[in-house]
Amino acid sequence: MPAGYTREIPQRYRLEAGKCKKCGAVHFPQRLACACGSKDTEPYVLPSTGKIATYSVVRVGPSDFMDLVPYVVAVVELDDGTKLTCQVADAAPEEVSVGTPVTLEFRKVNQVGGHGIIKYGYKAVLDRFVE
Amino acid sequence: MVGIVGWGAYIPRYRIKLEEIAKIWGADAEAYRRGLQIYQKSVPGTDQDTATISVEAAKNAVTRAGIDPVDIGAVYVGSESHPYAVKPTGTVVAEALGATPDCHCADFEFACKAGSEGMFVALAEVKAGEMKYALAIGADTSQGAPGDALEYSASAGGAAFIMGADDLAAECLFTHSYMTDTPDFWRREHEYYPQHAGRFTGDPAYFKHIMGAGKAILEKSGMKPGDFAYAVFHQPNGKFPMKVGKMLGFEKEQLETGWLVPWLGNTYSGASPVGLTAILDVAKPGDLILMVSYGSGAGSDAFIWKTTERLKELQGLAPHTRDYLDKNQIYLDYGQYAKHRGKIIMNTG
Ligand SMILES: [Zn+2]
Questions:
Q1: Between 3.40.47.10, 3.40.50.300, 3.40.50.720, 3.40.50.150, what CATH number should domain B3-169+312-340 receive?
Q2: pTM attached to this predicted model
């Protein structure tokens, strides 16, 4: 039973974070205590839109991702200022630059061979609906 | 009064043109284009499956409905391509939406009508007062055997509908199901690709069941084709839905809005449901819509929807199905397509 995967479902599937009720800091994933010392945090869902803050192009990836190379791994700054790291799906490296608007979509992140569990989570995609 | 409180679709960005498939198999592309009336089909990304497509379609439906996902009492996913042989797709979808744990969940299977089956049951549960909202999804990432006629049409996409009793965008006025034991298309356990009975899939299968369900629901409702603004039928190719629509007495103008298959391909369990989303995206309040699905094996589910004033407020809240279909597609050659669909044998040692 992949306990780690199950435990991480709220953040990986639903972008559930925590917010410090004292200083307002956002923790992703949720933490028990804030850097300010407060243990008074509340659940908070991250926005699913933002922009590329920085990125790098992976041309020789781990064997699990060899079907995706070349692919982009980016730090995405969400609309509330929270930063997270994820792959950019459906995009050639030359389509990505700092500041490119993105949306987080639900994707397969990894699968354990042809027989193991399928791991899902978020990836960033470029705006599909621009003219 | 029960019906749709929110709807949404999702179509992957990738496409392959029919010529690209015909080229590989030495087939006459023009004959296929004419025969199937399909020009291209959607292809899932290597990181997309029925669960990811279902989640994105359902998020659009939740956004339109403006509800708290905790109030969704049932999640039903109809598909012929569930990612797991054992472990319901709906578990992943319900978790991604935040509908767990107080939720009923089941996957449906009935070839291409698995999606409408879920809609049928979701409506009934809300009508019975068992729950406030029920979510039904039809989605597929189906595959045809390489070189088979189905390879030219089997595509990827899905649609989601949240059924409820208040604040309806479209009321469900009538339903009717029609089914028989007809072996026109099947896949045995442990087989990778389905088998089909060739031309037999037409008259005694698709046309018989859609006509059966379509005529019965018109009779039951006392309505006639001219009363409807739109009609949408299962669309395994471009020809069948247009032909069956005309056989039932509908005009081309009533059929075109939900007729996506020439540019989308056959999304199997998603086919008539995705067509319905394209209609809801643009319909006017008070419009009547007939939808009839078809699933091999075989059966059809028919629904008559009447849109409400609220429809207009919801149309712009999520992406339109035609935008997913027409904007910024990424075209693949057959080699890339084979990689996307896992048709290349890899050294996994
Ligand atoms: Zn703090």
A1: 3.40.47.10
A2: 0.97
